[in-house]
Design a protein that fits this description.
This protein has five helices and 47 strands. By secondary structure, it is mainly beta. The protein folds into three domains: 78 residues, Sandwich (Immunoglobulin-like), CATH 2.60.40; 351 residues, Neuraminidase (6 Propeller); 257 residues, Jelly Rolls (Sandwich), CATH 2.60.120. The strands form nine sheets. An eight-stranded antiparallel sheet has the order 37-34-39-32-41-46-43-44. An eight-stranded antiparallel sheet has the order 36-35-38-33-40-47-42-45. Strands 4-3-1-2-31 form a five-stranded mixed sheet. A hairpin with a 4-residue loop joins strand 24 and strand 25. The two termini are 40 Å apart. The relative contact order is 0.09. The model has no long low-confidence stretch (mean pLDDT 91).
Length: 708
């Protein structure tokens, strides 16, 4: 009940972890627009209905409610909610504990979306304490599901459903109208929506559909047709390899989309992992065991990527995905072909494996695995996914395999140091308990959903005069206006150990025509002082600059300069204060002077939402041209996460492992001495540090291109 709900901007609920847990609190923020659209809030009414989910069943939960108001103020309340008990037929709350969740808080995720059919409430969400926190409300017994757009998408028969976290179930589409006779295996994120694994009247486990959030079909890939066309073009007879339904010749069990090079990656358990051009469906590459039947056809072998010395190819794999450094991650089951002959190698163990694919040399190098002494038999199903860099969730779905009298599933988590943080076992029937499992970030979920993207920008560097001011540029895409906060800090940087901060910074905001939109010298004398304070963005010194502007889509430039030509280190910041899905910050750039010590150029950015953002980062110098004097002759960049861990580094862009993707996206620097790299950045904070090789100094331009 509220005295006037019209002043409400957003509500956040936060559920405190149970006693002894180190998991991040489950927390969700509802924007006013979402509450209105869903009928939880009626304009002018006093009642507010807030969906709170993720409670601990059978326990009294401490829930904090945080209210944000249109005038920038806020309020908090705390309440207790005792949740009913729940009959957990899957036994999530009672695993065999190989290792309980440790007190280590460096694991990047705390929640797990489990694709299962061990009950009639598929799918399930558990936390890393193995406590059930959400159960599917549709009464469906099927593991073909995915988490997308802040909801569970669930397949049953020929129908796709959306299961919202508030318990709402919506039937989206019955695909029998286009010849689908059933779903199988997985649902995965695609380029623009979800990729469904379907059976049709003609093909068994070899057709994929991409659909949008409403279930509308966007694209279709028929692997029988794609492979047949390639084999005919290469002079082979496809009838010796490709078969009509109901023959299980391909056994597609998962897909993945790599935004860096616009590739659809398809896992064929019987044969290989195959990369397709997303738009045309033509084959780019094939990675697999060359002793299998597919490699006997020269038309297919021509696409093969050769394994580097000491590297094992994936066999019978599941769950392909792209890691933060653009490598290929799969769960290698080790099981050979069951239909195609010759069946290829058979390994008596399963292992997650990560490969670096070099498309220039057509080689694949195994750069990481987790083999556990080559002792775990798990021949079918399962998954491995990377969350933050080198943080993994491993799902051994069928330990013991076909001959085991009591098979079980295992879930375990690895942090960036390679340490096991939790390890649980659950009895299973076939793959029913945990066919596939993905990390979730329910500690920071927002409604409506925010697409994965860079949200905020900060640039720290020397502020001089003339060309040596600090310049931050950004583009607002979409059709909606966006509210942003802009700051230029100087004196308060001394609190962080900066010895030469600019003592009186100023900011000026320009549009793409070069027209001045706004200026500020001392933030608390501006018109936005109250709102900056309410948003927690008030600069720490009255001499620093800050303002808030609502901007229409277009290109903008923020210049940080010193008053009366004063010089020193400054920090220019851009904050995204509105999270509208149809409006976002893109192509962020910073131009500044690179020195040594504290005077290097540092660009920080934050990635929001629950999925990785694909970003190309460049540091330019020589190509800035004759109109910029004193450019940095040989820039080098290093990307760090919020813990200071180096995620990527590059000096000369042509030496970067992702050179092909940089070229393909038309973002190759024009000078060989300039730096560039690609990152699949999970939600979190990052910094790009630009230095000059051999202590060089000069002006550099740092750019972040959001490929999402």
């Amino acid at each position: 009940m509220a005295s006037n709900s019209d002043v409400l901007q957003a509500i956040q609920f936060t559920i405190a972890p149970k006693s002894g847990s180190v998991t991040r609190p489950l927390s969700a923020t509802y924007q006013r627009s979402y509450l209105l659209d869903r009928g939880y809030l009626i304009a002018g009414a006093a009642d507010i209905y807030l969906p709170v989910w993720g409670l601990y069943a059978g326990l009294t939960n401490t829930v904090t409610l945080s209210y944000s108001f249109i005038d920038g103020s806020s309020k908090q309340d705390t309440t207790s909610i005792t949740a009913d008990s729940f009959t957990d037929n899957c036994g999530w709350d009672n695993p065999t504990v190989i290792q309980a969740r440790t007190d280590d808080t460096t694991l990047s995720y705390d929640y797990i979306f489990v694709k299962e059919r061990c009950n009639s409430f598929s799918p399930s969400i558990i936390d890393t304490d193995s406590t059930l926190r959400w159960a599917g409300p549709a009464g469906i017994f099927n593991y073909t599901s995915e988490f997308f757009d802040n909801a569970a998408y669930q397949a049953a028969g020929t129908i796709l459903y959306r299961l919202d976290l508030d318990g709402t179930v919506s039937q989206l589409h019955d695909y029998s109208d286009i010849g689908v006779v059933g779903f199988h295996h997985n649902i995965d994120r695609g380029k623009n929506g979800l990729i469904l694994d379907v059976d049709t009247t003609d093909q068994f486990e070899s057709v994929n559909l991409e659909v949008d959030a409403a279930g509308n079909v966007l694209k279709r890939w028929d692997l029988a047709e794609i492979l047949s066309d390639a084999m005919l073009a290469g002079g082979d007879d496809p009838s010796q390899f490709v078969y009509p339904s109901p023959t299980d010749w391909f056994h597609n069990n998962a897909t993945s989309y790599n935004r860096a090079d616009d590739t659809l990656i398809v896992s064929s358990r019987e044969n290989f992992v195959i990369g397709l051009d997303y738009e045309t469906g033509t084959i780019k590459w094939i990675l697999g065991d060359p002793t299998k039947k597919w490699h006997q056809f020269s038309s297919l072998a021509a696409y093969a990527i050769t394994m580097a010395s000491g590297s094992l190819p994936p066999i019978g794999q599941h769950a392909p995905s792209t890691t933060y450094d653009n490598d290929l991650l799969v769960f290698d089951n080790g099981l050979n072909s069951l239909f195609e002959m010759p069946p290829g190698d058979l390994r008596p163990f399963a292992s997650p494996r990560k490969y670096h694919l070099d498309f220039d040399t057509r080689t694949a190098t195994e750069v990481w695995n987790y083999e556990r002494g080559q002792s775990v038999i798990s021949p079918i199903c399962g998954s491995v996914y990377e969350d933050a860099p080198n943080n993994y969730l491993v799902d051994y779905a069928y330990v013991g395999g076909f001959s085991a009298t009591s098979p079980f599933a295992e879930l375990l988590g690895l942090n960036a140091a390679g340490n096991k943080v939790f390890h649980y076992q659950y009895p299973t029937l076939n793959c029913n308990q945990a066919f596939n499992s993905i990390p979730l970030h329910l500690d920071r979920i927002s409604f409506p959903a925010i697409e994965p993207r860079p949200l905020n920008l900060s640039s720290r560097g020397l502020i001089g005069s003339g060309d040596q001011v600090l310049i931050a540029g950004f583009i607002i895409t979409g059709t909606e206006d966006k509210k942003v906060a802009l700051r230029v800090l100087g004196p308060s940087l001394a609190n962080n150990g900066i010895s030469n901060p600019v003592m009186d910074p100023m900011l000026t905001l320009y549009d793409e025509s070069g027209t001045i939109i706004a200026t500020n010298d001392d933030w608390n004398s501006g018109t936005n002082a109250q709102e900056l304070t309410a948003d927690g963005l008030a600069p720490g010194d009255p001499a620093e600059a800050g303002l808030i502007e609502t901007l229409s889509p277009g290109a903008y430039t923020v210049i940080g300069a010193g008053k009366d030509l004063s010089q020193g280190t400054g920090l220019v910041e851009v904050y995204d204060l509105s999270t509208a899905a149809d409006s976002m910050l893109a192509n962020i750039s910073t131009r500044g002077l690179v020195g040594t010590g504290d005077n290097v150029l540092i660009v920080g950015f934050i990635v929001g939402d629950t999925a990785n953002a694909t970003t190309i980062v460049r540091a330019l110098g020589p190509s800035l041209g004759p109109n910029v004097s004193g450019v940095l002759a040989d820039p080098s960049l290093t990307i760090h996460d919020s813990n200071g861990v180096v995620l990527a580094a590059n000096d000369n862009w042509q030496d970067d492992p992702n050179m092909s993707a940089i070229n393909q996206n038309a973002l190759a620097p024009t000078n060989a001495s300039e730096a560039a790299t690609l990152l699949h950045a999970p939600p979190g904070a990052y910094s790009v540090v630009v230095t000059g090789v051999d202590g060089g100094s000069g002006i550099s331009l740092v750019e972040l291109f959001d490929l999402d």
